[in-house]
Amino acid sequence: MTGDLESQARRFADEVSGLLNKTVTHGIRISYLKTEKGHGIIGKGITSSNPNPEPIPISPSGRKAVVFLYMQHSYELDPEGVYLTMTESTMSLYTSPAMEDDQLIVGIDYARNPVNQFPSAHLHVSGQRNDLDSVYLGDKRKIRKLRDLHFPVGGKRFRPTLEDLVEFMITEEMVDPRPGWEQVVKEHRARWEAIQLKAAVRRNQEDAADALREAGWKITAPDFDI
Description:
The protein has 226 residues and is an alpha+beta fold. It is built from five helices and eight strands. It has one domain.
């Protein structure tokens, strides 16, 4: 069984467009782009000459937005070459499309294979703190801001999702949502959780089989006893 990166990525981009336009945006289109390295990127307004996504105005009515979402997801097929797998992700909320550091509300970053000591899934917030230098033991920074901290959030499998960010914007009253947004978020979150569950089962088959046996299922391994 071989997967099709392009068709799966395009389908996912369409699902993201649907989630946003049924909850907190107006007529937004999320696009897919295949990179020279054969990976896939999704985001708003990306092209082969400019693969950096545009900030997304958060306004379901189409009126002037006061919150902007920067979103970029990078994909490839899993090691078996079958299913779409996210390799890197950035989802950040800003108070301006200029996206300056001091305009950050919250940022959620993910790297499947991080190149530093920080957790693969982490969160950034912006704010004023004047005492962080006193609790910094490293030597790579002269000053340390709150924005520099990496808060671990759920790891590879249970990290925050776009659905969580949409819910955050609405429940914190940053945007007036479309009617019925709760059901939209619920349905999209259920699909994401099902995908993650299946991926977890594929990577932890013995644990999954044990859990099913405990629930009364009769499980037989295909080639060997689990």
